[in-house]
Records
---
Amino acid sequence: MIQFTSVHKRYPNGRDALNGISFEIAKGEMAFLTGPSGAGKSTLLKLVALIERPSRGTVLINNHNTSRIRRRQIPYFRRQIGIVFQDHKLLHDRTIFDNVALPLVIAAARRRDIERRVRAALDQVGLLGREHGLPVTLSAGEQQRVGIARAVASRPDLVIADEPTGNLDPDLSLDIMRLFERFNEVGVTILIATHDLELVERLGHRQIKLEAGRLASEGLS
């Protein structure tokens, strides 16, 4: 599902964010991307989502070489990827339903399919019945659940998350990670960047550790 081969990323200011990264994540696998701030975790996720492109090396996502994907093809490429952010990135003037529906609306899905998929996604994260409310009425943990529902509503093959529990207490963080595990159990590939090593160790999935833009280690936590 994800394959990095000798990937380098240098930004225009000359900073090297990634240096010679090589690893693979199999379809249906769940893995954690760890390392200190500035290690390159967010940059790596941006390469997966084609927000950035590698300076050198090869990134394959579901057998597609991202360097060969043209700019106009990027929206179609991203339809196979659900993205979860630390700060939710919810639209606070839109209902919870509208927030979750946004990727489906952009993809021009039929209204009937949108309603069905949004309700199913909200049910999976325990928020069915709250769809007509606004995000401001939700707790931080519930807002993150909306973000996860939005990421999975289009039934992507891959979900990536950048510090999805960074603003949550330990109990809520575990609840959010258990949600990711549930989606992984039905075949969704999951890659989560996190600094919460205690939680990573507790869950026991594979860990890919970065240090100063290099692959420091990988294996089961």
---
Amino acid sequence: MVFDSHMDTPSQLLRLRDLGKDNRYGHVDFPKLRRGGVDASFFALYTPAEMQPDASTRYALQMLSAVYDCVETHPEDAVLAFSPEEVSENAGHGVFSLFLGMENGSPIQDSLPLLRTFYRMGVRYVTLTHNGDNAIADSAAEGRCWHGLSPFGRKVLREMNALGMMVDLSHASDETFWDCIRLSSSPIVATHSCCRALCGHRRNLTDDMLKAIADKDGYVGINFCPAFLSDDFGREATDAALLDEADRTEAAFIAAPDDPRCVKAWHSMQDRLLKMKRPGVREIVDHIDHAVELAGVCHVGIGSDFDGILVTPEGVDHVGKIGLVFEEMRRRGYSEEAVSLISGQNLLNVMRRVINASESGC
């Protein structure tokens, strides 16, 4: 079973991508998911940090509606899933289980009722921040507002624990991370993060953080973003200034997804990015190795960040090639049981533990 803890595909739906087609310029669609043997994934409702709260709420609802429309249009390919028990049943029918996460808690504004509403609509985890501090907590990109969780953020944490929603600390500042480790009554997750010991990016987790996630009975999904896998790539990309140009090109495409000029420019940029020298499957599994060494084989998984990264690792151009990661793990001596845990079972297990903690009132 393959269960990915983070893909950014909902925003692609707003860029007019048809998931029923095998898209050349796309990391995720139903044909690719089938080729990759992917049974389930969290699709993240991502809102940029610079959006104002009202706009972020509206944008999150637009993405949510697009996801609902997508599964209604392709019932033979996917169903919206709400609990871990549905994955095996859906896989038995040859149908992909689509779970919902929220990346950046801004759409809940300062409202616990809004948080509960998103939960009722299917959102099963919230990545508290993105690349900016918000009303809930400080982010890794800034980290100057609250020195961790805000007073409202502490209420959000308690409410998520009570609901059985996973608290995702990818993008969180170090202070936010340790506040949540200390205050949460449920396991903590980092759905799409890598190891800072191997790549010094501020978004990555320190060795102490990896150990703390394991001590909390949580989960870390290793991210495929080249800049989080390799310091060398980050330096090369910065020197070339190509990623900044790519950001601007993508922003124009997002603003006008039906403008042929913007579409053509973004496709051309994708071709340029794929010509860069990038880390590949070996580096992904290096991070898996390190996380397993520190956190244990029962607390590590895959959080590819497909459709949310500007460029993919070498050789893993889309989700249809995700199996190369598991092949590399086998070459390194991982047992089939360990591969099964990391490819998806660990994510199912932590979901159950978070739900059980909420039901027991812990």
